[in-house]
Write the structure tokens for this entry.
Amino acid sequence: MSDQQSTPAPVWSSDDLRRQAEEQLQAQPSQHSEANFQHLRHDFEAQQHELQVHQVELLLQNEELQRSNQALELARDKYQELYDMAPVGYFSLDKGGHIVEVNAAGSAQLGLSRPHLLGRRFLLFVDESSRTSLATLLKRLGSGAASGRGRLELRLLPQSAGGAGAGGPTVPLEGQLDAVLSSGGDIRLAITDITALKAAQSTILALNDTLETRIVARTVQVQELNEELELFVQSTMQALDTPLRHISSFAGLLKHAQPAATPAPTAAASPAPQDTQTVYPEALREHYLREMVSAAEHVQVLAAALTEYFRLGRQRARFIPVSLEKVLAEVKKSLAGELEGRQIVWEQHRLPTVTGDSRTLQLLFFHLLDNALKFSETRSEVRICIGVSENNTEYIISVQDNGVGFNMRQKSRLFALFQQLHSPRQFRGLGLGLAVVKRVVLRHGGRVWGEGKEGEGASFWVALPKEAGVRR
């Protein structure tokens, strides 16, 4: 039995198998080896060529890809710069309403830098008055129920990096929001700052509300100016009429005058011829000439007064806060010559500060005080009281004296140009001072009036607005 026992098969390794295969291949006779070699070479060269072509194609594709990437990077940088430089605030929100992208203008609108805004809910920066309407719009866009676009006006509440109140109070921003749902599902917002536009609209509405009142006020002013112009022309003609008539009359007399002469006596003298000229003594001719010169000088004085009066209206006023205390002190200095040697009792209240033109306000007080001093010359003791009262809109300054006063029946002539309520022989002046007072007061948008009683004195009131009003 042991002789018939089978011997186990040998175990070959992979190296042994390869060696035996090569030996058998070499032992076999070679058939068509040259043809196979040529065929294999041809296939190899073809494959090599294909690989080289593919390699060149890959190089060209890589270069084109690099150029495309560079172009895309340039385009991305360009549009990123345009995105950041845009004056409109751009935001991208995810479906939860969180900010995922924002440009520089949007950061400025919300008062925080881009890193502090990313990830925060946009609604936190919206005023409560606009929050509900914006939330409704975002919900409709996110659900696809809307047409993919929406617009509304809202109020934003800018914040500071340190939290609410860290940078002090912030000014709300009025904005117009345009929203669109992108193809990727994000909601994109564009917010235009219309704060200045809304302020301008509010101003226009406020002006429209007061337009009728201002038209009525302007109409009254035009009527007053027309009346003032008529009075001016009338007063000017009256003031010039007297001196011009004097000049004309005396010139006519001199035209027909002949110097007086004593003819030499002669026995055979023939009768003197008839002459239409009148013979005047030389002294009378000189008197006529003096009257003409005086009338002409008076016309010159009136012309100078008119020039000064109109210059007051043409000069540009500079309205600033003016202390009437300082104005009155300056006026008293300029009237020092009038005050010297006279017994004057002053009573003066504390004067306010008003918005006005300092130079013309000095003219106003100069003429009021000069008027009080002039018409109190006959008093041994002059009493002048400068008082102040006020209402909701005006400061009312009064100047009272104990002078000769005036007849209230003539009060309509008080502030007319060249109107004198007393004889020029008794009191100096041209009737210009109170006309200047009225002109100054009207330029300040105020009122002026006066009262008097013959023999007991006069009082004048000037009402100046507390706030800047309509001026001329």
About this structure: The longest helix spans residues 33-85.
